[in-house]
Design brief:
single chain, 6-stranded antiparallel beta sheet, 8-stranded mixed beta sheet, alpha+beta
Length: 491
């Protein structure tokens, strides 16, 4: 097997346990080879010897975390790297070790919200997360069994860095509210946290409770890599229903939910209504626009028409729709900033949110800290979001492309759909779309795009009226039926 098969965008991911009967491909040998190759890649990129460098290693709550962590650390110290072993940690905290501990790099062992048998590796430099090209280079070195031969082995230091990271977040709340920790700036507020048995439980006990918040009703704070309660994913309906019920049952002021490694988050208002997807983007946009009037907010392509109106009409900011993929959104915001366009927020509907003020790091805990500061200052979030127009219906369907050259075929489908849309006098092709084709139709819109890595074409719909999506589908179905190599499934 080529290790290139383990590439998943900007991460390395594979099957790390046979609990579901699948063959393990993220083996000890694979993890060791990749770790050795990373050292070679890192020494080349930094022009430093391995013996001069320190790399931090952490992991979320997955059942294979200890096994993989041992393999990574052994390969690093055998290569001469000094290792700071952070054990259980969030992904954003691991990046922050490059800032606060001056590590030359950080490795987080995680597979985000994926099933319990999966795991993977995520790499950071002080400049940010590695991109897909970097991962491909490391895997190519792995396939060639590249290793760095040191003059001496590295050392291991154990550190509970999450204590430092939690203190950083507490300090941010104290600074914003003008109160010290001893003055308990969150006293009188009832906030529940759902960590999904991932790495986010610290936020309830080490951030909120220490600042005086009532965290009764918080759930699934204990790390458990089998995820026995629900999928640790703010995009999952069952997960969001769970935190909504927790807020209502405990009569809390706010609910917070994290994914496994805490790089994503969602919220629930005191009435149990989700602050997720477009509502989370709207709230985040309000917060950053206070210090950045007229700013450009970068989002992924499937955000709603209502959100665009909210950002541009209510906030007097600019909305820049870009491609799906949190790294794409973050990189575009960085690029705009470098060109002189103030773009303080890059956020995807999945809950990945990166703020310029926080190193453009997608950090769920940092985002909810900003939201909690607003709550502590007396902001009524429900009132704040009232102008945001929400659709009556929304849906995503995924077509499968059944030919090997799926990219060319998908591009052909999009091109022909553009011609089809132009011939409908009631349809309008969006002029601000940068992925696939987005079409405004009476009472709604749809967007067809091509997956970057997979033979899949997702199509998203929103309608302002009940039954509107079925009307759009009825018009589109004859068009898609003519494509023999497009599996429509239950469309």
């Amino acid at each position: 097997m080529s290790y290139m098969e383990l590439k998943s965008g900007t991460d390395i991911r594979g099957i790390a346990s046979d609990i579901f009967g699948k063959e393990i491909n993220l083996t000890n040998q694979a993890v060791s080879d990749i770790s050795y190759a990373f050292v070679c890649w890192l020494t080349d990129k930094t022009n430093k010897s391995a013996e001069e460098m320190t790399v931090s290693v952490g992991h979320d709550s997955r059942i294979s975390a200890d096994r993989i962590s041992c393999c990574v650390i052994e390969a690093l110290i055998n290569s001469g790297i000094n290792v700071i072993n952070c054990n259980l940690a969030s992904t954003p905290a691991m990046f922050m070790t490059t800032v606060m501990l001056k590590c030359d790099a950080a490795i987080q062992i995680t597979a985000s919200h994926h099933p319990a048998d999966r795991n993977g590796l995520k790499f950071f430099l002080p400049s940010g997360g590695l991109d897909g090209k970097d991962i491909a280079e490391i895997l190519a070195l792995s396939d060639n069994n590249m290793q760095y031969i040191p003059n001496k082995k590295g050392n291991i230091t154990n550190k509970d860095f999450m204590k430092d990271y939690a203190k950083l977040l507490r300090q941010k709340i104290c600074d914003a509210t003008g109160k010290s920790e001893e003055e308990k700036p969150l006293k009188g507020f009832h906030i529940v946290v759902d960590a999904g048995n991932g790495a986010g439980g610290f936020y309830a006990t080490d951030v909120l409770e220490k600042l005086g918040a009532d965290i009764n009703g918080s759930q699934f704070l204990n790390p458990d890599g089998m995820f026995p309660n629900h999928i640790p994913n703010p995009e999952n309906n069952e997960a969001m229903e769970s935190i909504s019920k927790a807020v209502i049952n405990s009569k809390a002021d706010l609910g917070i939910i994290f994914d496994t490694d805490v790089d994503r988050a969602g919220c629930v208002g005191k009435n149990g209504e989700e602050i997720n997807r477009n509502r989370l983007i709207a709230l985040s946009s309000v917060i950053v626009s206070k210090d950045n009037p007229g700013a450009t907010i970068v989002t992924d392509s499937v955000t709603s028409d209502g959100l665009k109106l909210f950002i541009e009409n209510n906030l007097k900011c600019k909305h820049y729709r870009y491609r799906r993929g949190y790294k794409n959104v973050i990189d575009k915001a960085k690029e705009l900033c470098e060109s002189g366009i103030n773009s303080p927020l890059a956020i995807e509907t999945s809950g990945h949110a990166a703020l310029k003020e926080n190193y453009f790091l997608d950090d769920g805990a940092y985002l909810v800290t900003k939201i909690i500061i607003e709550v502590a200052k007396g902001t009524d979030i429900d009132k704040l979001l009232k102008p945001l127009k929400m659709p009556a219906e929304e849906k995503e369907h995924r077509f499968k492309i059944t030919v090997s050259d799926f990219k060319s075929y998908g591009e052909k489908v999009i091109a022909e759909l553009e011609d089809f849309a132009q011939n409908n006098p009631l349809w309008k092709i969006a002029d601000d779309n940068r992925e696939g084709i987005r079409v405004s139709v009476p009472n709604g819109w749809f967007l067809l795009r091509l997956s970057v890595h997979d033979p899949v074409m997702p199509i998203n719909f929103e309608s302002d009226v009940n039954g509107g999506i079925n009307e759009i589908v009825a018009i589109l179905k004859p068009f898609f039926n003519k494509f023999e190599n497009l599996d429509l499934g239950t469309f």
